[in-house]
């Protein structure tokens, strides 16, 4: 079944361009011109991916993304920000509220589709991989679930893959560039500081179970997952 993608964009020409390219690529594309209209659609069905503009009428895209990450039903929804706000601080803010990818306008439709495919791959369960249990954490690649001391955690697709990468190589120092290649893929350009934002979000998710300490910052080296 083709993946479903909801485009939230208030500019009609851009919205139509996105829908056209997504449909030509084989996806089921729908759209909304505001966060409020998108929420109505989400109440009916949660898509496989959300492409979200920042500057929307009414509630902004970043506020909408933040609210989606706070709700259990949409906590794991892959979110791609697509916006004209191209400053580094804007990108970091987008990632900080829970975006999994950040694309700036003007954009290449071919690059956008490549990043859509990459994000959908990151969000897909990894078949064939056995569960991993370390220090009170159990990660199940095939079900896309993580348990902390028996309690189910709610992680975004990027946070899940980041944790999976760590748990596959415990006690090994992972540089930011290595994490980018392993989690985002070497064909997608993401700034290294993006890793820090997602590490912070992952630690926040682990904090209620008292397990944020498992992810150690290695000065000058990157990060390390402590096996106990």
H-E string: EHEHEHEHEHEEEEHEHHEE
Order of neighbouring strands in the sheet with most strands: 2-1-3-4-5
Mean pLDDT: 91
How many domains?
2
Report the total helices: 8
CATH top level class name of the largest domain: Alpha Beta
Principal-axes geometry comes out as: globular
Could you say what the CATH topology of the largest domain is called?
A: Rossmann fold
Largest sheet: 5 strands, parallel
Number of strands: 12
Determine Rg (CA atoms, Å).
17 Å
Q: What structural class is derived from the secondary structure elements?
A: alpha/beta
What is the CATH superfamily label of the largest domain?
Answer: Response regulator
Residue windows where pLDDT falls under 50 for at least 5 positions: none
- What portion of the residues fall into strands of 2 or more residues? 15-25%
Q: Could you estimate the helical fraction of the residues in percent?
A: 25-40%
CATH architecture of the largest domain: 3-Layer(aba) Sandwich
Report the span from N to C terminus.
Answer: 41 Å
Description:
The chain has 228 residues and is α/β, with parallel strands linked by helices. The chain has 2 domains: 4-122, Response regulator (Rossmann fold, 3-Layer(aba) Sandwich), CATH 3.40.50.2300; 132-225, Winged helix-like DNA-binding domain superfamily/Winged helix DNA-binding domain (Arc Repressor Mutant, subunit A). The chain is 40% helix and 21% strand. The chain is built from 8 helices and 12 strands. It has helices at residues 12-24, 35-44, 61-69, 88-96, 109-123, 157-168, 176-184, 193-206, and strands at 4-8, 28-32, 49-52, 79-83, 101-104, 132-134, 137-140, 145-148, 151-153, 173-174, 215-218, 222-225. The strands form 3 sheets. A 5-stranded parallel sheet has the order 2-1-3-4-5, with helices on both faces. A hairpin with a 2-residue loop joins strand 8 (145-148) and strand 9.
């Amino acid at each position: 079944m083709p993946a479903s993608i909801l485009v939230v964009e208030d500019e009609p020409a851009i919205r139509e361009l996105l829908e056209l390219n997504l449909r030509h690529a084989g996806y089921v594309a729908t759209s909304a011109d505001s966060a409020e209209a998108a929420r109505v659609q989400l109440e009916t069905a949660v898509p496989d991916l959300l492409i979200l503009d920042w500057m929307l009428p009414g509630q902004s895209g970043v506020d909408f993304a933040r609210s989606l990450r706070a709700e259990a039903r949409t906590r794991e929804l892959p979110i791609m920000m697509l916006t004209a706000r191209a400053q580094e601080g804007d990108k970091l803010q987008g990632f900080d509220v829970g975006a999994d990818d950040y694309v700036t306008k003007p954009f290449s439709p071919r690059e956008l589709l490549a990043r859509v495919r990459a994000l959908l791959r990151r969000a897909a369960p990894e078949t064939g991989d056995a569960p991993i249990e370390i220090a009170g954490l159990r990660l199940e690649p095939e079900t896309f679930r993580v348990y902390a001391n028996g309690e189910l955690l709610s992680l975004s697709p990027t946070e899940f893959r980041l944790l999976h990468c760590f748990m596959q190589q415990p006690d090994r120092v992972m540089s930011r560039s290595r994490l980018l290649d392993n989690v985002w893929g070497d064909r997608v350009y993401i700034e290294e500081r993006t890793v820090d934002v997602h590490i912070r979000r992952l630690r926040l998710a682990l904090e209620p179970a008292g397990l944020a300490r498992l992810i150690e910052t290695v000065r000058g080296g990157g990060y390390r997952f402590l096996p106990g």
